[in-house]
Amino acid sequence: MTPDRREDAAVLDPAPVLARATIDVAGVDALLGAIRRAGYRVIGPTVRDRAVVLDEIESVDDLPAGWGDEQDGGTYRLRRRDDGALFGWAVGAHSWKPYLFPPRVTLWSAVRTSDDLRFAPGEPDPPAPQAFFGVRSCDLHAIAVQDRVFLDGEHPDPHYARRRDGLLTVAVHCSDPADTCFCTSMGTGPRAIGGFDLALTELLDGQGHRFVVEVATERGAELLAGVPTRPAPDADLDASAQVTIRARERITRSVDTDGIRDLLAANLEHPRWDDVAERCLACTNCTLVCPTCFCSTVEDHSDLAGENAERSRRWDSCFTLDHSYLHGGSVRPTHRARYRQWLTHKLGTWIDQFDSSGCVGCGRCITWCPVGIDLTEEVAAIRADPVAEPGAGVPYPSPGRFR
């Protein structure tokens, strides 16, 4: 499979480039200030608890200047760089998902008095408009996948829609992918091609520390108008392209997506599922860090007096026993069944539901798995020694066959 295959990826429409300019680090700070003055709550990368995380930021001083990272299966370490790069790291522990699909949302609350029962919506006021600053291409594709799940159906999710409405996105073309990245296999990176208002390429060479800015929307142009810029010379544009070429060459992990949906469907009884089940802890880390997983459950709570009650929605995971519970027991009672469900849905039946893969190749599930389970290795093992050829047998088993 070539690195540029895009059949199973959640492909964004290419963004038109209205203008290109070059700014310095002070210009990045000015851009952050312009976004904040426009009324946005800016969410971006910062360092906390020995990791690059996402949080509200105010200035360039909050960014992870001079930090890089080392990632592998079950391994994450920050490391000091010998330069002042602001974006010299791969994806961090957090995706942008919690800011559009929060881990917990109150759906409604109720108060009972002696003669009345009053209900109130959980979120009566729309949240402040958000700006995502420093989004990598894989995460732009992940947001597009979540848009399909929460917005494109017959019943759009109002909580997601309120947070998504008016979202401003400043992308960063990836320069330092982690060893766990495989976005090239999924057609989702390393260069951002759409889904952003502005995109930055960080350049560090003999010409100084600077950024090429690509303007994709009128809103982005308006914000950049208040920032000191200079026309981007051809040398900077060439250097920007080279950043992507070098990043692509550094990505070594891959997954062959050719016919992957049918491959997995034909190998539901493959012995590899037993092998991975011996290692899997069913801890749910992979689903928590995944930027596209969307499973949730609804809970009702009340106080002891029965006077106050609320209904909330919180994240759930297909790795929990209760997630697949039907009357009489769990449909997927074993680690084997639950891991198989996650992987075959992510890479296979997601295509049936949403016409795209549910994986964007960010590698977070590999990095943050305590035992280093690597979905690219699992797929490769099944493909190398299938027990049945794609297309053989029934597409997927009935619940009674899961174990």
Q: What would you note in describing this structure?
A:
Helix 8 crosses helix 10. The relative contact order is 0.17. The radius of gyration is 23 Å and the shape is globular. It has helices at residues 25-37, 137-150, 158-164, 183-186, 218-224, 234-250, 260-265, 272-279, 285-289, 335-354, 364-367, 375-384; strands at residues 19-24, 41-48, 51-56, 67-72, 75-80, 104-112, 117-121, 130-135, 168-172, 198-205, 208-215, 230-231, 296-302, 308-315, 325-326, 329-330. It contains twelve helices and 16 strands. It has two domains: 19-250, no CATH class; 260-401, no CATH class. Strands 3-2-8-9-10-11-1-12 form an eight-stranded mixed sheet, with helices on both faces. The two termini are 33 Å apart. It is an alpha+beta fold.
Q: Treating each run of at least 4 consecutive H or I residues as one helix, how many helices?
A: 12
Strand order of the largest sheet: 3-2-8-9-10-11-1-12
> Could you tell me the mean pLDDT?
91
- Overall form: globular
**How can the largest sheet be summarized?**
8 strands, mixed
- What count of domains describes the coordinates? 2
- Rounded to the nearest angstrom, the radius of gyration is 23 Å
Structural class comes to alpha+beta
What distance lies between the first and last C-alpha atoms, to the nearest angstrom?
A: 33 Å
Share of β-strand residues: 15-25%
Written as H for each helix and E for each strand, in order along the chain, the element string is EHEEEEEEEHHEHEEHEHHHHEEEEHHH
Unreliably modeled segments: 1-8, 396-403
Q: How many individual β-strands?
A: 16
Q: Provide the helix percentage.
A: 25-40%
